[in-house]
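#lab-general

N.A. 3:47 PM
ok so I finally got the sequence cleaned up, no stray characters, all 339 residues accounted for. can someone with queue access submit it? mine expired

B.Y. 3:52 PM
send it over

N.A. 3:53 PM
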Amino acid sequence: MRAAERGGLLRMALWAALAGGCAEATVAVPPPTPVPTVPDQMGDLWGMVPAEADLVLFADLAKLRESAWTRASFAKALGEGGDRLAEMRGMDRVIFAKLPLLREDASVLVGQGRVDRQAIRSGFERGGPVRFSTYRGAELLERGDEALAFVASQAVLSGFDLAVRAAIDCNVGSAPGVEAESWLRHLRGELGRGRPAPPVAALYVRLQPATREELMREMGEGGTLEAVGARIDLAADLDAHAIGVVRSELEARDLAGRLGERMRDARARPIVAAFGLTRVMESLRFAPQESEVRASLHVSQEDRQEIAERMALVADMLAKMKRPQDPAPHGDEKGRRGP
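B.Y. 4:20 PM
back already:
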């Protein structure tokens, strides 16, 4: 699967990368006799994310499918995805990681759940000629520089060939994983402090110079950021927490102040009240803490209902405005033109 296609995973379509390309093609080589895979020793899904990752996105699809906040969106996405997403309905958790040290656009997707091997394998094979082999006991399919691997009985890997192999190396303990990296360990620890349950979604980024430059161009902020972590927790309410790591306490105070001022300006805009976002925006806080900026956001169930109703009302009004006006009755038209 091409890197551009996998970028859609960051917009809550994470599972699509496992399906591979959709173009019709013929498998060049028949699959070999199945070889027993490694025992089910994968344990934590994080144990298969290579240390070279500088962006890691985690999503608990099982929780997202059941949450009142996201249930309808998931059902719509699966319905519109048709056959391409059908085989991913049983996937419970996924991690998407970018590994630019292997190649600029290199990435790997790690999925865990009720893996439908045949459906996933068939989707990958439709993208072009496939080579079949094994690597460290895992069934490996390769197409160009893309790879698909089945690890244990409930895990699947998809992405850049070298990234998939690196993930398998991590799984068998022959290569270090990203969990041991100090930047990620710090962010996960701080964001998880006092929250015993895992997040429903989380994002961790170690910023590279090019990323900081892009943030400055797009937002005018982020030039001093070293790393960013965020997590979302869903129950009846939604809670989001984020940490931005900078180089000094002075930079943290400066960044927190600027972000707070931007939010105050945004809260004064009429559209915020029109969409029922006032309480949500007021809940957003930025606080400096040593060399970090910490942010939190709370959206209640009542806020969600009000926002949904107001957005539906605005959407209905826009639809009516765009609807072509009915033509005048023939008789009225004649009356205006005269006898």
